[in-house]
Amino acid sequence: MMRLLLVCLMLPLFLAGCGADNIYASDADVARYRYVSDEPPSLTLYTVISTRTNAGGHSALMINGRERIIFDPAGTWNHPWAPERNDVHFGITEKMRKFYIDYHSRETWFVRSQKIPITMAQADQLMARVERNGSVNKMMCADSVSSALRDMPWLHDEIPFTFSPLKLSKAFGKLPGVISKDHYDDDPDDNSGVLMIQQEKPRQVVQMGN
Fold first, then answer.
1. Domain-located, residue 64
2. Which pLDDT score, from 0 to 100, does residue 206 have?
3. Sheet holding 88-89, edge to edge
4. Is residue 132 assigned to a domain?
5. Under a CB-based contact definition with an 8 Å cutoff, are residues 128 and 61 in contact?
6. CA geometry: angle at 71 spanning 37 and 193, to 5°?
7. DSSP secondary structure string, the chain?
8. Mean pLDDT per segment of 10 residues, for the chain of length 210 residues?
9. Is 142:160 a contact under the CB 8 Å cutoff?
10. Is residue 120 part of a domain?
């Protein structure tokens, strides 16, 4: 009942934030850029936090299992080497992971990463859940992430349903074995140029003869 009441109260805000972006990469692109990390299975919660007010601005999940993906509900980051299907980005290499953090970290925002170890079976279960989630409406990031986590039997009692990225981060930070790190950057607040630079193709070096 409480969740229904919150949704009803916030519905006008969600509608004002526009609808979800329905992006669906091809099978060929997903297969081409698929990335398998040599690290053990893990789950990382990313929370974007204001450097001025400490308010939470965004929530996302990176899942590392048989491949590494980022569930970025209602997010604005994109890269041609990280094909997207309904807010799930595939091909999250170390470069793409760093790109994702760099895009969100700037003078007005920092990124908190909170990582926990999980089993391969748990990674499979959570990946399947976020892949069938569908694209997310604006302002619904923490709601979508907390709902996905609560659907996991091994997290249901630990994670609250919430629209607040900070409340979600606080609960996640209490999980056993969590490793937290805050990422800061002094890039200007208008970071549109960051995305353009990230997506530039490497320049070919032409060596001149002697």
1. yes
2. 35
3. 84-85, 88-89, 68-71, 56-64, 42-50, 109-117, 179-183
4. yes
5. no
6. 90
7. -HHHHHHHHHHHHHHHT------B--HHHHHHH----SSPPEEEEEEEEETTT--EEEEEEEEESSSEEEE-TT-----TTS-EETTEE----HHHHHHHHHHH-BTTEEEEEEEEE--HHHHHHHHHHHHTT----TT-HHHHHHHHHHTSTTTTTTS---S-HHHHHHHHTTSTT-EEEEE-----S--HHHHHHHTSPPPPP-PPP-
8. 44 41 93 98 98 96 98 96 98 98 96 98 98 94 98 97 98 98 88 62 41
9. no
10. yes
Six-digit token pair at 102? Answer: 């760099």
Structure tokens at 193: 């140029």
Q: Which two tokens stand for residue 60?
A: 């996302």
Number of structural domains in the chain:
1
Condensed to tens digits (0 to 9), the pLDDT of residues 160-193 reads: 999 999 999 999 999 999 999 999 998 887 765 5
Q: Which domain holds residue 139?
A: 42-187
Whether pTM exceeds 0.70: yes
Cα(122)–Cα(145) distance, rounded to whole angstroms? 16
Q: Rounded CA gap, 81 and 93, in Å?
A: 9
CATH number assigned to the domain comprising residue 126: 3.90.1720
DSSP characters for 81-141? TS-EETTEE----HHHHHHHHHHH-BTTEEEEEEEEE--HHHHHHHHHHHHTT----TT-H
Q: Which amino acid is at 33?
A: Y
